[in-house]
Every structure is written in C-alpha cells, then in structure tokens.
Specification:
The chain is an alpha/beta fold. The chain has twelve helices and ten strands.
Length: 300
Amino acid sequence: AYIYALLREMETVSKNLKKRPVDTVFIGGGTPSVPECDVMEKLLQGLRDYFLFSADAEVTIEANPGTLTPEKLSIYRKYGINRISIGLQSPNNKELAMLGRIHNYAQFLESFQMAREAGFSNINVDLMFAIPGQCYEDWIENLRMVAALGPEHISAYSLIIEEGTPFAEQNLDLPDEDTEYQMYEDTAEILERYGYRQYEISNYAKQGYMCRHNAGYWQRREYLGFGLGASSLYRGMRFSNTRRMQEYLKESRNPDQIRKDVTVLSRNERIEEFMFLGLRMTEGISEKKFEENFDVRLMD
C-alpha cells in the first residue's frame, strides 16, 4: 500500500515539472534494501516513467548488511542505480551489538562482495565513532580495516545521543570530548593515506567519487523528497511531508494536503543558509556565487 501511495505522489508531482532533468536520486530510509524484488521493481519503474533522468545521473540506494541478495542487486542495476551506500557502522561485532544492529561484520563483507560482483563500482560505507566503550585506538583500527577494502567513499559520523531515545535513558560509557575530537581530527589524515580526500564535515571520497546528491544539499540546489516525512527545497520554499502513515496513504495524490511546515524563505534566511550550509564543505563558500545569488558583495 505504501509503495502504491509513493507512486501516486511521484506521478502527481511529476506532471508539474515539465520534464525537467533529474541529476541525482537518493533512495534512503529506513532500509530500502528490505523490500523484495517485485516491490522495488514497481518503485524503480515508476521513477523511470515519471521523471526524465540526465545521461550521467547519480542514483544511490541505501542498504543494510544482511538484507542484500544477488537478485535485488541485479534489479537495482537494471533500473540504473549506480551507487550503493552500505550502513556498516562498525567492523567490530561487539560495537554492532551495543548499537543494536542486526548484522555482523561477516554479513557486511558478504554484502560488499555481492555488490562488487553485481557491478557496483561506486560504494559508500557508513561508519560511526564515539561509540560507548570505544577508545581512540579502536576507532583508528576500524577506520583502517574499512579503508583497506577500498570503497570509493566513506562517511564517518560521531554517535549523537538524542533525547527521548533508549540510549538517552542509559548510563553510557562514552569517550570524553577530547578523545572524540581527536578521533574526528585524525580521521581525515588517516584516510588521506588510503587515497581519500575530505570534502565535507563527515564525508571522504576517492578522486571523482564525491557524492553529488549530498553536495547538492550543502550547495542549496533544489530537491524534491517523496514519501513519509520526506523534506524538500523547491521554488524558494522548504517543506516536509506528513509523518502520519494513514494520512499519507489516503492523500498522497494531493501534495498540498500532505505537505507540512511550508516555509517561504526570506532573503535573509537564504543568505544564512548559503553561509552555514556552504561552510560544511571543505572548499568553503564562493564570494562570486554569493554576489550572483544575492546581488551584494559578501563583505558588505
């Protein structure tokens, strides 16, 4: 039912886009590698039917180890998915269990190898540091283990404890602030030895493999999100879809009904976003682009 609702939303919205070419797609989650082949085939066929893809479009799907099969990977490739992001988080099984992950490192290695055999030459691996009980040396070892496998891209995030979550209610043995800082600071240096360049706060890529979709967020390129809770930046507005499943299933053909928190950005808000999002990138922000966007010099 959810996939059909998602297709209805995409079909309705696509009619207003006048065949504007799509440069990047990111199929995120949840875990979109869970649905079986027939379900994903419907979704991926819908994407191709409703939208015009540019010739070199970057199309990413997120996957969790243990949920991939050769059949699923074959379907992804058939419909033009050319980048896969695998949520490993840690190659240490004790750390994975602590995080409540349902996979182990062996399952990750199997998934990684399957993706390579299916023809994926652009793979990202997600890693997490500052995990409870983790010391500096543990993190460096994790980093080296994954870098040695040679994925094209590595994302490295520190664990953030959110209020109201089960983790927040526990007395966790977290690394102190100085250790966490050192873990972060040394990540770029170590990955550089393996051929990765840091291009954004948490992202490192081999030459030519920067994630164009993620970079688009920080460069304030327009994007449309489809599905439950998905957010968008479009025509000077930010908005997000309802998070209530029944409302979404019923109203997905009516974008105005499901879009919530619609904010028309003022000039000042656009300037603020240009600055704080642009500063996530190691290349920083462009004075020339600032002037082109806002008709005023940055220093003024």
